[in-house]
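Reading a protein record of the kind used here takes little practice once its layout is understood. The fold follows as a row of integers, each naming the local backbone shape at the matching residue. With these conventions in mind, the following record can be read line by line:

_____
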Amino acid sequence: MATTTKTATAKAAGKTTTKKASGNTAGKIEPSEFHEFFVDELKDIYWAEKHLVKALPKMKKAATSTELAAAFEKHTQETQTHIDTLEQVFGLLGEKPVAKKCDAMAGLLEEATSIIEDTDAGTMIRDAGLILAAQKVEHYEIATYGTLKVFAENLDRSDVAELLGQTLENEKATDVALTEIAVSAINAEAAAE
């Protein structure tokens, strides 16, 4: 038992890093398991955004309501901005922007495709389903960006936290806009079909 404790202590001592000054705004973060986890999660959301930007035009094409189609068009442009912002974040961290498959987003986008396949074109039921699928995506992104922002703050990277916070606020605004479209008419019309 004493040998195990000494080994664990030695391993822990080997992993100590020099903490950067509070509020660090440039350069690569000193390596740590938490930093590596943070970067890994950035790669995950980067993949998610890159695949969402391809899926949104399909959702726009499937939408019946011109208002919903316009919302998908707007969010396609915003999603490209999110990709650009993540590339900026990678640069600030001294990391190469690399995407790692996001199983959660893959599943959410597969569900959106199923909704399109399982509903009739030209119906508000399809639009209600598309809004449901899009809001599931938004909620995933809100959770991810909110957590990554806090991670950046804990790594003393206010510059990165600010960029992630801007994306977080945009994702929240998109979720609210989708709710407004749903409650303004689409849900009631879908219920009447």
Q: What stands out?
A: The radius of gyration is 21 Å. Residues 40 and 100 are 8 Å apart (CA to CA). The longest helix spans residues 158-192. Confidence is low (pLDDT under 50) at residues 1-25.
